[in-house]
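Example S7 (structure tokens).
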């Protein structure tokens, strides 16, 4: 079984980075905190659990980390069981808080926009009424002091027009802010590297299905992805991730395709049985294997990039975690069978 040696402070920092790199986990506070808790107490129960899961060079999955309690798992704290439900990762809570802030801002902008539009309409009407009154006074018979009234009215008209211009500018700014919020709303559900849906969007799509909907959940993982990063660098690895994600999405256009974490992609097929889902996943697998990648910097061939897949079918009544676990087990069967293949859950 793998063991994690105790580290000094300066060594611990480097060890955490290496741990994240080895496990293909993104460098974000939640994952860093999880790695820190593992490596800062190498004899603790969390480190022992991680060592058991990674024995033999197997990398951690997002599902494994969630089962271990995610970044909130203290080194000496008892680990939750599957029937206790998966602990929500810190990143998911942060995303939820950000989403709530966006929603509140959208409501405030909408209220402001309505108020500005109403004031703009009233100001425009007031300006028209003043202009009509001034025209009528100019056409009327001369009256003592009328010139001064006309002058004051003209000044009020100018101020009304200036107010209209300011209101129009404010309304344009409100619309621009609303557009920015709409974009932020979409960004919160999109993986910035691949432009696919992210885990949050995938989970929301699953949760939004009507009860009893026939579905299939598939997991696809890039085989030996660490080799690509180690030999060609992370910039090339990012290109491969984008290309593989685009290929999977293109071949499985009917599915919700998300980058679920690291080099793992999740697919949600609605109204599709296991046979149809595995056929689509296998078609995507063949399309990925047929591509040839080269390094832009050196033009050196990267070689064949392949993916493995696991599919589990059920209904939307089944908890997502349970369906994910069955698909994950099928994915590991594909890895054990030599990779570059896909299996259905038993």
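Recovered sequence:
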């Amino acid at each position: 079984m793998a063991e994690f040696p105790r580290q000094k402070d300066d060594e611990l920092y480097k060890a955490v980075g290496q741990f994240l790199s080895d496990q293909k986990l993104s460098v974000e506070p939640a994952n860093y905190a999880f790695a820190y808790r593992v490596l800062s107490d190498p004899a603790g129960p969390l480190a022992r659990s991680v060592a058991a899961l990674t024995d033999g060079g197997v990398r951690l999955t997002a599902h494994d980390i969630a089962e271990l309690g995610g970044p909130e798992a203290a080194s000496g704290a008892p680990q939750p069981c599957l029937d206790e439900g998966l602990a929500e990762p810190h990143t998911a809570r942060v995303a939820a808080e950000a989403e709530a802030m966006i929603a509140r801002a959208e409501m405030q902008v909408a209220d402001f926009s309505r108020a500005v539009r109403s004031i703009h309409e009233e100001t425009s009407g007031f300006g028209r009424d003043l202009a009509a009154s001034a025209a009528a006074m100019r056409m009327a018979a001369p009256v003592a002091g009328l010139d001064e009234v006309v002058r004051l009215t003209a000044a009020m008209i100018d101020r009304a027009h200036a107010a209209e211009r300011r209101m129009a500018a404010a309304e344009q700014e409100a619309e621009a802010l609303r557009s920015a919020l709409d974009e932020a709303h979409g960004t919160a559900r999109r993986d910035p590297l691949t432009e696919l849906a992210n885990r949050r969007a995938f989970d929301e799509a699953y949760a939004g299905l009507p009860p009893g909907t026939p579905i299939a959940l598939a997991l696809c993982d890039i085989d030996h992805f660490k080799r690509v990063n180690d030999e060609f660098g992370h910039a090339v690895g990012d290109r491969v991730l984008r290309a593989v994600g685009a290929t999977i999405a293109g071949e499985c256009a009917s599915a919700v395709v998300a980058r679920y974490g690291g080099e793992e992609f999740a697919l949600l097929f609605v109204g599709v049985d296991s046979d149809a889902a595995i056929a689509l996943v296998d078609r995507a697998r063949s399309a990925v294997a047929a591509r040839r990648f080269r390094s832009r910097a050196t033009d050196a061939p990267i070689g064949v990039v392949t993916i493995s897949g696991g599919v589990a079918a059920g209904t939307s009544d089944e908890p997502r975690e349970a369906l994910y676990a069955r698909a994950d087990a099928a994915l590991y069967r594909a890895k054990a069978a030599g990779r570059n293949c896909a299996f259905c859950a038993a």
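Notes on this example. The chain has eleven helices and seven strands.
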